Amino acid sequence: MNNTVEDHKTCPVPAVISLNLNMRPCLVFSLVVCALIQGDLPAQQLPFVHYSPKDGLISNRVRYACQDYRGRMYFTTYGGLSVYDGSVFTNYTTDDGLATSMVNDVVEMGKDSIWVVSNTNKIHCLVDGKLKDLVTADGIIPVINKLIKSGNGVWYALADQGLFKFQQNRFVRLRVEDSHGREMNTYFTSGVEYDNKIFIITDHTIGIFPAPARLIVYNVVTGKSMINYTPGGIFSVIVSPRKEILVGTIHGLKMIDTTALRQGRIRFADLPSMYRPARKLVGHYLYFDRQENFWMLCYNGIQKISPDGNAQMWTTANGLPGSFQFSIFQDKENTIWLMNLETGISKLSNPGFELFTKIKPGFAPSDIYANPRSDSVWFIDADHQKLLIRHGKGENEFSIKHALRSFRITVGNNSKVYISGDSGVYAVRLRAGIKNISPRLILVTFDSTKAFGPMCLLTNSAGDPVFVNISAIALSQNKTFEYPLGYIADQCCVTPDNRLWTITRSKKLYVFQLDEKNKNYFHLLKLLENELPKMSPRSITVDTSGKVWVGTREQGLFCFSIDKKMELVSWKQFTMKNGLSDNHIWYLHSDNSGNIWVCTPAGLDKLQLVNNTLLIENITRSLDIYQHITKVQTSANGVTWILGSGGIIKLTPSKNLPKDYKATIFFSSIQVGSQPVHNSQSSLSLPYNENDISFRMAAPSFIDEKQIRFSYSLQGSANKKWSEPSANAEIKFVNLGPGKYTLYAKAIFLNGIYPDTSTSYSFEILLPWWHTWWFRVLLAVVLIGISTLIVRTYFKRKLQKQQILFEKQQAIELERSRIATDMHDDLGAGLSTIRFLSEKVKRNSFSDVTKDDADKIVVNSNELVEKMNDIIWAMNEKNDSLEDLLFYSRSYAMEYCEDNNLECTVFLPDPIPGIFISGEIRRNVFLTIKESLHNIIKHASASKVEIRFEMDEQLMVRIMDNGKGMLEEKQGEGNGLLNMQKRVALLHGTLHMKTERGFVIEFFVPVNPGFVYREH
After folding, report:
1. Is the same domain home to 23 and 103?
2. Are both 676 and 751 inside the same structural domain?
3. Is residue 699 within 8 Å of 665, Cβ to Cβ?
4. Could you report the per-residue pLDDT of 185-217, keeping only the tens digit for each?
5. Is 442 exposed, middle or buried (0-12, 13-18, 19+ CB in 10 A)?
6. Residue 545, exposed/middle/buried by CB under 10 A (0-12, 13-18, 19+)?
């Protein structure tokens, strides 16, 4: 066994040592005993993380905390309720439904069902993020201060009005009496239930009985109660994991005698030895965590006692925020939360983290070294020329009377201590025989004319000091070996196989085999330069698996895989995007557990490469500590020592993480537009115009919530790729198109505490009604119908046009035939008569007969002219109106009757409709009128005739004279009357004749009243 100063097993013999000599083990250890200092390092600061209203907390006056099954934290305050899911605080005030801002208690009654007890006679239920009032069977709720669930599942309420039992959805008041039968059931504030008994503390701020605060024990089986009178001033009561009933009083910590309690008396017994440090402390709140640590909140600090009796007192001097902590709570990850009535919430997630702003008065460490073969750690103060050795049983301090400008220290396995100075490397020799004598520095390297001080100082497997600056230099057997590197190398490392790895700022990676027995001490195995990616190296280390890690000035961290032939196989780059605190890697350290410690100007990170996945733990940033970390060292007991700009950090391995809790991701809130949606809905269907959706994710883990990253993928959209992992827990989708979507989300824990966890949520944006299938079918039917109608109308109109054209052509043909017939019948006969008379005149020239014949020629010629005019008028399309027909007929009738000495009166409709009248109708109507007048002149012997035109749905013409009329038997014998009937019948009309103080002819002709005549 190699007994050195690093091994704290010492013998009780006072002595001094020379560290560079082979001395007896007992003499080596005696120095430690002489300078042993008990206790922890002074000025210890605990790594509390604080939450206040600036972080989203509803109020800085926080009272109690609880945690639901998903892991969300609930904080009751004087200003409302705050719910923290690791990403954001969700707050509830009177504006959100609280009856009052002061919240007394919060309990989880079931999944997603939280009872919120306000300081009034109301209880609220928080379901799916909405507050609702609890309605009891009788509508009565007392002013409850605390709810207690007994071992058999029954809930009891400690209220201003006394003790209540909740059963059958109502609060039933229990009678609590003292031994004299006096009721003392009022102002109960806190308590616990144990062994069918409820231990109740009364309000010490109320100046009525039973104040000052008393302890009341109520037996829920018998209904009997006990009360203590001496001592008074009871503040808190708790049952320990060992079933001890502890009471915090104004006279210190007390323990109830359970034997006397079973006999119906409250008596205090002696405290077990582990609680002795707290027996005189006034604790207003008592608490046991899962590790059975006892916490006692006092007015001037916190007393923590471990199960083995080790006591710690935390005050504002070592980082406790505020002097009055109201309550304490341990969550499912074993994180300790402190609730303060002034400063909000403080969290202690890493109890193994200790920050020493000053390890000793007047000592400012410039470099540290932790021995990987023991539990000792060495500090050097270059400014004050001091050396400090700390180990498991104490510490030793020495003065070094030599000014040093550099800051490097290392210890070899032969117990030699080496310190870099302004002109090289010194070996430290402590002279024996005189107590507290300064050690001597012995220069063991070249002087400053050849090189400046080492950038990195360490020892190899043989215990020889090895360091780098612009060269690699080793000291062995009083000889100096040097290998020029060509440029500055900031750090080097030696692996167990005695290989030296270093990299220069010019990006040259050297691998040397160190051989102290060979003249060629530095045997170059490999030089990598062009194979390396573009970077500016500053630090290097090699982990236990052989991977080479290189830190850079701006490009973050590189990991190189190098095979046995020293060839570069692959590399990866990690930056702040992957979770690093900074891209400037100042120093790298690899411990025996395979952890990579990364020192940056922004803090310290711990890395692990597991299954090709990098796990990053932000050691300092997670605790809201921002320092420039310059060096990390690990001792044999696993304790990590960190040198930072703010002091020394000691990190003790912690097994605090529970195995039964796994952080899982869920959607803490969903909003459509500005309206929240209940998370209990497994899917969602939204109208097309409500397509702005936001989701908030949560994966409650409070060890280091800053190391949680969220990513998502929206299936059903055009972009189905997973988003870049981000600390932002909110997802917003704007103006989503109609369709079915599934949102997949996952939480990534960069520190590797939990595996990645994922969840999904399906929703649908409905099509607008004009895009639905039924509307499309209806639209298709309508379009088909309209198209059919258009096509049918088109072809119908085309057919009508063709029919009209055909009818017009037919009418033209008929008109031509008629004209030909008329001309044949009328003009032909007349012309024949003229021809005959002309022949006769020619034969009988200038006889009396000739004159008569000439007169007949004249008459026939006039008739022919009149008939020709009638034909032309009937054929002229400009006369195709009712007005032309009536005016022409009236003109003819008036002229014809005047020529035959017949008084004629014509009545026209007023006004005359502008109706189209075809040539056929005009001709037949006119000829019928003409024939009637001809018959009146020829046969009626009338002196007066009346013609009346009327227009309704048909054209009515009535011709009446004052003549002798016509016998009934002769009405059908004349050709004129027959011709009139034929003409009217040809127009699909009707004709009537009768004798009525003369002869009356009346006929009706249908016309088209909807066809309005337009002037051409």
Report:
1. no
2. yes
3. yes
4. 888 999 999 999 999 998 866 544 444 688 999
5. exposed
6. exposed
